[in-house]
Amino acid sequence: MLSSSLTAVKNPSVKKKLCFLLKLVGFVSSVFLFCEFLIYYVAIFQCRWPEVKDGAPMGEKETSASVLKAMILADTHLLGEIKGHWFDKLRREWQMERSFQTALWLLQPDIVFILGDVFDEGKWSSPQAWADDVRRFRKMFRYPVSTELVVIVGNHDIGFHYEMTTYKVNRFEKVFNLTSGKLITRKGVNFVLVNSVAMEGDGCAVCSTSEAKLVALSHKLNCSLQKPNHSNKRCSGVEKLPASEPILLQHYPLYRKSDSECSGEDSAPPEEKNIPFKEKYDVLSQEASQKLIWWFHPRLILSGHTHSACEVLHAGKIPEISVPSFSWRNRNNPSFIMGSITPTDFSLQKCFLPYESRVFTIYCAAGALFVILILAHVQLLTPPFYFAQRLISKHKAV
């Protein structure tokens, strides 16, 4: 009789503890699921493709079929074996993978451009380390057959000019199936892919080859933009491209003195804005910038490298958008650009990813609540409800 009564006493206690434990596990799992998975859907679900100014809303079939939906990001900086800590790799790569895959699923872009510095240590990587970095990149940035991925070369992929070699350039171009000075045309929109690291202007082998390709491409584009009745012997026999002013895609921005004129929540911090940029390091040289504008007369320039957002006008009419870094290692508030582009017009919209500081705040608040719940359960901390109830009881007793 005594044994059965003790068992009856213990069972409710065990059930109560088990129920509390399951609630804690559920609470922790919910917080983790939200911060590491659902939060990306919450952030990106708010983004919408912009409408082209002279077109109809993107929802209409006639317009959406003719508008190219382009997603542009930059500076992913996948960590390598030399400077990359395993936890830093794990954390940053998970964040970028979830953001990218969520964006593809929700937004379904036609084409994605990554504006260089895909890898952090491409300039140093051994063949084995390079192969491992490429494998991880392909896993993170996998994409469906309905989407195209185009990657531009950056200084961290092949090294700054003094580190750049033909071997490193060929290695990069082989993986991403592109060449410097290449033009791609999608839905009548011309994009020129520039190896801005090779715009040194000193006649190096890679530089000379790259510039020669750009000059030849410039000739084709200029001939294609001429009116059909315009007679020009230099254009006879030249392959005609769609008569659309090109969009330049490159890693280095064109020359500007600094980021002092840049604004917005993802522009450079105030203490960095007035630091002068170094030509051929932070930005292209004035000479190289003038060459690209003169050769192509682009209607838009998209660049990366600075890790911060900026919008400037060149020659008073050509906009350049510097795209911030896509990695939380470089920014608290990464983002990417959504572009609705036609042969004659374009409209851009920025899509912000979750702020890492907010994720950290959620974890801290959840951790504090977790500790409070445990302390209250073991009666080391009186829950506020019971504390208030006791005060009311004492007041009535008086």
UniProtKB/TrEMBL annotation:
Asked whether the UniProt record includes Kinase among its keywords, one would answer: no
A Gene Ontology BP annotation from the UniProt entry? endoplasmic reticulum to Golgi vesicle-mediated transport
- Cellular compartment(s): Endoplasmic reticulum-Golgi intermediate compartment membrane
Q: Which GO terms describe its molecular function?
A: metal ion binding; phosphoric diester hydrolase activity
Q: How does it sit in the membrane?
A: Multi-pass membrane protein
Task: List the CDD domains hit by this protein, alphabetically.
Answer: MPP_MPPE1
Query: What is the superkingdom listed in this entry's lineage?
Result: Eukaryota
Q: What is its main location?
A: endoplasmic reticulum
Show the GO cellular component annotation of the record.
Answer: endomembrane system; endoplasmic reticulum-Golgi intermediate compartment membrane
> What are the TM regions of this chain, as residue ranges?
20-43, 360-387
Q: Which InterPro entries match?
A: Calcineurin-like_PHP, Metallo-depent_PP-like, MPP_MPPE1, PGAP5/Cdc1/Ted1
Q: Which UniProt keywords apply?
A: ER-Golgi transport, GPI-anchor biosynthesis, Hydrolase, Manganese, Membrane, Metal-binding, Transmembrane, Transmembrane helix, Transport
Instruction: Name the family.
Output: Belongs to the metallophosphoesterase superfamily. MPPE1 family.
Per its database record, what is this protein's job? Metallophosphoesterase that catalyzes the removal of a side-chain ethanolamine-phosphate (EtNP) from the second mannose of the GPI-anchor protein intermediate. Participates in the glycan remodeling steps of GPI-anchor maturation to allow an efficient transport of GPI-anchor proteins from the endoplasmic reticulum to the Golgi.
Name by which UniProt lists this protein? Metallophosphoesterase 1
Organism of derivation: Tachuris rubrigastra
What lineage does the source organism belong to?
Answer: Eukaryota, Metazoa, Chordata, Craniata, Vertebrata
